[in-house]
Amino acid sequence: VPKAPVTGPPNSLDRIVVVLVATRNSLNIGAAARAKSNFGFTQLHLVRPWDPSFQEAREEAARSAVGAGDLLASAQVFPTVAEAVAGCTLVLGTTAVTAGGRRDLLHPLDTLAESAERVREHLQNPEAQVAILFGSEKTGLSNDDLSHCHRLLRIPTREEHISMNLGQAVAICLYEFVRTGSDTEELPLDAAAPAPASAGEVERLTQMILEALQASGYIAPGAEAATEEKLRRQLRRFTLTRHDAQLALGMARQILWKLKPPDSR
Amino acid sequence: VPKAPVTGPPNSLDRIVVVLVATRNSLNIGAAARAKSNFGFTQLHLVRPWDPSFQEAREEAARSAVGAGDLLASAQVFPTVAEAVAGCTLVLGTTAVTAGGRRDLLHPLDTLAESAERVREHLQNPEAQVAILFGSEKTGLSNDDLSHCHRLLRIPTREEHISMNLGQAVAICLYEFVRTGSDTEELPLDAAAPAPASAGEVERLTQMILEALQASGYIAPGAEAATEEKLRRQLRRFTLTRHDAQLALGMARQILWKLKPPDSR
Predict the structure, then answer these.
(1) Mind listing the pLDDT tens digit for each residue in B93-126?
(2) Which of A116, B28, B56, B65 has the most Cβ atoms closer than 10 angstroms to its Cβ?
(3) In what order do the strands lie in the sheet with A16-21?
(4) Which residues between 206 and 245 in chain B have a beta carbon less than 8 angstroms from any beta carbon of chain A?
(5) What is the pLDDT of residues B189-246, one digit of tens each?
(6) Using the beta-carbon criterion (under 8 Å), do B157 and A5 form an inter-chain contact?
């Protein structure tokens, strides 16, 4: 007797956002939309899709997204990663690089199976929302994109040929997120858990602290981008609740006010 | 600490053959070759690839199979499913249809995860070889293709949108076959297990029995194809060892000899 497809906690798939960053080939956007529809996910965010005329790209992609036309039509386009993940409380980046790579040392790295387990646990919190970022076909996620991520995940491909096709990588990730649900008992929603901070809240905090650092003379000229990335990564390594973020925002706002010269307050 | 990718028993991936039947879009052949290379599988068999000029198709596919060019070049082309799976001892068909569908009632149906478990067990026999068949993009595997299969497997997609992109389906299946190996203890090879019959041996037996049925007047005119399919399916439901197949072949050969008129023996 075949098992019915089983999902995670109620509506948990609605709380997972697939984010495609700087995708070059519109066929891959269509393939991602199709896989999303196959496995019951609903949210697709596009950051700077490469094609200058996205409407044309949408039509081209629709051809490869058999039965997923509606999903594709409802995909939202954002100018920045920060805006695309603003509502999310856990942001995961996908990478082909293994622990040997420089970038990965800056982030904890999970296998896809471990990551799916983590996502399921995180979604027990009814206010949680998860983003999974996929970079461009050629270069993957940039360091700036990665600075918005809490953790990285990797599909276990061979060392000799690690780089996957984008549409196939999205399909495998979504399959694993659905698959995990059928293995283990469904985790209950935990209504008493404190609401986690959203990426938007953490990003506001990041920008306010940056402004304070700037005003205090902490940042050397030319080091603005590096400092911003470092701070962004660090703040995402903490597991801030919404309350934590609001408290810290209040503190930073006050410090910033004090740092400014009296006549510009 | 990330887990290293783990495979099944020694060389077991070399004993899994991906068979693409009547594939229409060469890009999907390239995508399948790329996924095979990502996960360490080596054998790709193509049955009647739709493109009349396969050489051109091969070049086109090579463009979408980044880093998998060698694998694609080594893909073998066969005119029939029977020839493509002749060396295999377990033949699995992929289907999007659920147990409600007519065709599936004729074959045992597993989820992909269950199927991967079964493949791992089967490959404990050092003489075992497994084929996984994928049908064409539009229509999937035909009834005739399915009659060569021992079992079916299904990727658990949603009822509302069950049909997957071919390249993505291949990638998910290969991921699951590799993934399973990392979960559970590696199964040892069982050198004492009797060698299973190959699909080629079972097909020879099928054809000999058919000839005998034909010669005996069992088959009504016009019912040849239906009888052949039925017989083929039935013989594959038994788990024949090589010894079983050879014994039965000898019996059928003798009966066939006896059935023929003396002057044509």
Answers:
(1) 999 876 555 444 577 889 999 999 999 989 988 8
(2) B65
(3) A76-78, A43-47, A16-21, A130-134, A90-94, A151-154, A109-111
(4) none
(5) 777 778 899 999 999 999 988 888 888 888 888 988 888 988 898 888 777 889 889 8
(6) yes
B109 — contact with chain A (CB < 8 Å)? yes
Residues of B in contact with A175 (CB under 8 A): 155, 172, 175-176
**Cβ–Cβ under 8 Å, residues A158 and A116:** no
DSSP state of A193: S
- A35 and B165 within 8 Å at the Cβ level: the answer is yes
Q: The tokens of B166 are what?
A: 């071919």
- The answer to whether B110 contacts chain A (CB < 8 Å) is yes
Tokens matching residue A235: 């703040």
Rounded to two decimals, the pTM is: 0.78
pLDDT tens by residue, B181-190? 444 445 677 7
DSSP line for B173-240: HHHHHHHHHHHSPPPPP-TTSPPBPPHHHHHHHHHHHHHHHHHHT-SPTT-HHHHHHHHHHHHHHS--
For residue A24, which residues of chain B lie inside 8 Å, CB to CB?
none
